[in-house]
């Protein structure tokens, strides 16, 4: 399952990102990031929280 997920994410971000040393953690953190906001959205009143978290993730992994 992990290999299939990495293949999909590699297709989305391209070979340059897939060749990075931190690609495995990039993939896992993205999947965790998708699950987390969905589960915790019922506990948060700020709908912008998910957007801010995704922005921070993108700054860390895609720059």
What does this structure look like?
It is a single chain. Helices cover 76% and strands 0% of the residues. It has helices at 2-13, 15-18, 23-40, 49-62. It starts with a helix and ends with a helix. Helix 3 (23-40) runs antiparallel to helix 4 (49-62). The relative contact order is 0.12. It contains 4 helices and no strands. The protein is mainly α and 63 residues long. The longest helix is centred in the middle third of the chain and has 18 residues, at 23-40.
Short description:
This protein has 63 residues and is mostly helical.
- Strand element count: 0
Whole-angstrom Rg: 13 Å
Helix/strand class:
mainly alpha
Percent range for helical residues? over 70%
Query: Could you list the spans in which at least 5 consecutive residues all have pLDDT below 50?
Result: none
User: What characterizes the major β-sheet?
Assistant: none
Put simply, the count of helices is: 4
Mean pLDDT: 83
Report the order of strands and helices. Answer: HHHH
Terminal Cα span: 27 Å
Shape: elongated
Portion in beta strands: under 5%
Features:
about 60 residues, mainly alpha, elongated
Write the layout of secondary structure elements.
Layout: H1 2-13, H2 15-18, H3 23-40, H4 49-62
């Amino acid at each position: 399952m992990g290999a299939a997920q990495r293949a999909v994410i590699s297709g989305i971000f391209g070979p340059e990102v897939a060749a990075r040393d931190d690609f495995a953690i990039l993939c896992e953190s993205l999947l965790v990031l998708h699950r987390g906001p969905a589960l915790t959205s019922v506990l948060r009143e700020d709908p912008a929280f998910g957007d801010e978290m995704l922005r921070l993730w993108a700054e860390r992994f895609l720059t």
